[in-house]
Design brief:
By secondary structure, this protein is α/β, with parallel strands linked by helices. It is 39% helix and 20% strand. Helix 11 crosses helix 13. It starts with a strand and ends with a helix. The structure holds zinc ion.
């Protein structure tokens, strides 16, 4: 792999959004130069080495369009799943993993899963030290070889409960009130200081040429961000030609919050703030209004769909088929919260496909092709922007590739005509998982070979992780949980 040019070959490949047999790519440096059959490319370039094989399936690198880079699952770290609002209150008590190690470990997990780009919503140890942590996180991802859209978050309201913090505080027993007041105090990072920090990070790290790092804004979520914060973030993203990502309408209580606060839905409210545009991605979008898909489509807003996380945190199932029908771009994120706590992106696509097809003859279809697009080109659009030449195998585009063990996915039992090329998308979505990922290339460089990371040593990573966690007590169940549940029990579902 030292030659600057090589031919990558597979028996089947997803080229220009269609599966084809006998696919070969000529890769030079970071880019795909030519696409054709193996014999044709090898004849035209007889001195260029050929890598790959008949029993492999080639596809573009997968895109995790919403995550937090926690490295380990939250159950593994001691926090049980619960209602979103109850679970969130326990996040602060998780053991801390040093930021660079967390990103290396997360990056290693993602590369093994065929993911070559991640949208990373940073959960800092504290907002006061966030901008010191982020360069370490970026270094960790760089070592793992992953592209990253980094969005440092800010929140400035409703940090304890939505809408009625006074009422909640006065209902608490005295011994819990001090703890709750700490949580109710918005973080000591002003909007101006956050925007300064973002600008500094953007000026140093945003890479609009090679797209290794993008720096973006993130007012954490609708109910946690004042109008001034949302508008400040929107203005900053537009002025710098970058993007913003927000959590939105994840739980039913967030939807009720908007109606109680403004007598209208959240998306309508954002539109009034002039805060919808093609620079914006909204994560989750489970509890939508009937006319939201059309409005999002009209404004060019993308959605990052997180199917496992929405199930585990008891939020529900997002109306993805309606988004697709309305023409909304959708990516898929894992939110650090997949069903098996293993960041298996191929399984996450399987879940998105399965949940995306709702009961009943009148339900909109979500096709296997839709889901493959969401995992690749749609994910690039939601994560870096539509103009970035990633997410599809095309001549002139950047070379982020995944080779899967097609023989293992196919198994021994299928008759030779199964699957036909038309049924390949469903066959792949129904059967593939991360154990089938054999080789991964990012920006023209192999970062996974025969299932092994080419830069990071797996044993050292595990040792470092054990060492980091051994020094900390496991998280214990947080005291406010039952009272938070009681608070929202008085809201409509
Ligand atoms: Zn999230």
């Amino acid at each position: 792999m030292t030659d600057k040019r090589h031919i990558v070959h597979a028996g089947i490949g997803l080229v220009n959004d269609d599966f084809q047999r006998d696919v070969a790519l000529l890769v030079e440096g970071a880019s795909i130069l030519e696409i054709g059959g193996r014999a044709a490319l090898a004849n035209r370039h007889p001195t260029v080495p050929v890598f790959g094989g008949e029993n492999l399936l080639l596809m573009p690198g997968l895109v995790n369009s919403h995550d937090h880079g926690r490295a380990l699952g939250t159950v593994a770290l001691g926090l049980p799943d619960d209602l979103l609002e109850v679970w969130l209150a326990g996040l602060g008590s998780l053991p801390r993993i040093p930021p660079q190690l967390a990103a290396q470990y997360e990056g290693w997990l993602l590369i093994r899963s065929g993911v070559t780009s991640v949208a990373h919503s940073h959960n800092p140890a504290s907002l006061a030290t966030m901008f010191e942590e982020i360069p370490e996180t970026l270094a960790g991802y760089r070592q793992a070889g992953l592209r990253v859209a980094m969005f440092p978050p800010l929140l400035d309201q409703n940090t304890l409960v939505y809408l009625d913090e006074e009422g909640f505080l006065s209902s608490l027993p005295a011994e819990l009130r001090a703890l709750a007041i700490t949580r109710a105090t918005p973080p000591a990072l002003s909007l101006d200081a956050w925007l300064d920090g973002l600008q500094h990070l953007y000026d140093h790290y945003h890479d609009a040429r090679e797209h290794r790092v993008h720096v973006q804004a993130s007012p954490v979520g609708g109910q946690w961000a004042s109008d001034a914060l949302i508008q400040g973030a929107a203005e900053w993203a537009r002025a710098n030609g970058t993007r913003a990502q927000m959590h939105m309408l994840e739980s039913p209580y967030q939807r009720h919050y908007a109606w109680r606060r403004w007598g209208q839905g959240f998306i309508q409210k954002l539109d009034e703030l002039d805060a919808l545009g093609d620079w914006l991605t909204l994560a989750h979008m489970v509890w939508t209004e009937a006319d939201d898909p059309a409005l999002l489509s009209d404004r060019g807003v993308s959605v990052a769909h997180n199917p496992s996380s929405n199930l585990r945190l008891r939020s529900g199932i997002a109306p993805v088929a309606q988004f697709r029908k309305a023409g909304v771009n959708v990516g898929i994120g894992m939110d650090g919260h997949t069903l098996d706590e293993d960041q298996d992106y191929l399984r996450e696509m399987r879940l998105a496909f399965t949940l995306g097809n709702r009961p009943g003859a009148h339900a909109e279809d979500l096709t296997p092709g839709d889901v493959l697009t969401m995992g690749t080109r749609g994910g690039v659009h939601a994560t870096f922007g539509q103009e970035v030449s990633l997410g599809s195998l095309k001549a002139g585009w950047l070379a982020d590739l995944v080779l899967l063990d097609w023989q293992a996915i196919r198994g021994d039992w299928a008759p030779p005509q199964i699957p036909s090329i038309d049924h390949l998308p469903e066959f792949l979505l129904r059967r593939a998982n991360r154990s089938h990922v054999r080789h991964v290339m990012v920006h023209g460089e192999w970062v996974l070979g025969d299932g092994v990371h080419t830069r990071l040593d797996e044993n050292s990573l595990h040792d470092s992780m054990r060492e980091a966690l051994a020094q900390q007590l496991p998280s214990s169940a947080h005291l406010l949980g039952p009272l938070l549940r009681q608070f929202y029990a008085n809201w409509p579902d």
